[in-house]
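This section describes the prediction task in plain terms. A model, or a person checking by hand, is given the sequence of a single protein chain and must write out its three-dimensional structure as a string of tokens. No templates, partner chains or ligands are provided. The sample shown here is typical of the held-out split.
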Amino acid sequence: MDLSRDRAGSPAGGPPIRVLVVDDHPMMREGICAALTRHEDVTIIGEASDGHEALAMFRDHRPDVVLMDVQMPGLGGIEALEAIRAEQPDAAVLILTTYPGDAQAHRAIQAGAAGYLLKSCLRKELIDTVRAVHARRRVISADVAQQLALHAPQDRLSEREIDVLRLVAEGHPNKQIAWQLSLSIETVKSHLKSVFEKLGVDDRTHAVTIAVRRGYLS
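The expected answer:
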């Protein structure tokens, strides 16, 4: 098979890569589409502003690659990824994010993301990343990969610990957290102790700050 590439970067004579762009910010979608349509081997088949629209458009158009923002109102990017992969297990979904935190990246990879790319890298890396995931190669931004390497799997917060920390971030005391989650106060304290140890912090405020930085909390 001749795998020589034309000046656009696609296999000579091959069909263009059909891309669905999903982001809740119109200017970001416009910028992504403009960057991709400069290349002859890519065609934009649709744009969506949230996960629900993305899932509907995926069903209608079956794109080759989905570019999906991670944080959107309603159905978020990772939830939409999970829904798409449930319907088409080999779907190529590239997650886009503003922050290099390891928690969301780990969740996205576990859900089957074909790639995880920082928006700050889009100008230089977008087209090559789209081509790579279309060719069934996984791509992760270097900064994200570094964060994943820095944090051992056993130090990741559990879903219940995240629930507790989310309520801490909202300003609730332990008694209120226990009531909302149907837990004892001692259990809440135990979860917080585990959270502090895993995040390497000594207080609630610092725990929330680190959790946001790593992507556990929005």
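For orientation: The chain has two domains: 17-150, 156-214.
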